[in-house]
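Researcher: I'd like a structural prediction for the single chain below. Treat it as a standalone chain; there are no partners to consider.
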Amino acid sequence: MQATAILLYAGGAITLLSALVGAVRGRPAALLYAVLGALYLLLARKIQLGRPWARRTVLVLCVIGLALGLLRLAAAGPQGALWSVGSPVVYAVLLFTPPARAWFRRPDPPAGPADPAGPAEPA
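Model: Treating it as a single chain, here is the predicted structure.
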């Protein structure tokens, strides 16, 4: 579970960096990359907190990413398509490990210090 969150954090940071570089160069897709990078970071945090909806969302995005990666592989060949096909598989495998499944099945995931949804601690 932690490995999935770390990969999502890294992917979000790289995507946000790409957005910044794209914005400096005047590329119109920069805004899309910024939104995707922020989504990566949000999902990483919610995966860490054990939110089942975040796991389901990542798994749906894995299916979409795998389908797009296979299309890219068929259209352009193996150059560059390995990551497009491999990364969704890695995320899905990590989210289906027994420890990850147990993490998301907990009745009440622990609230982190920065989780506003968590219960307030008595003073």
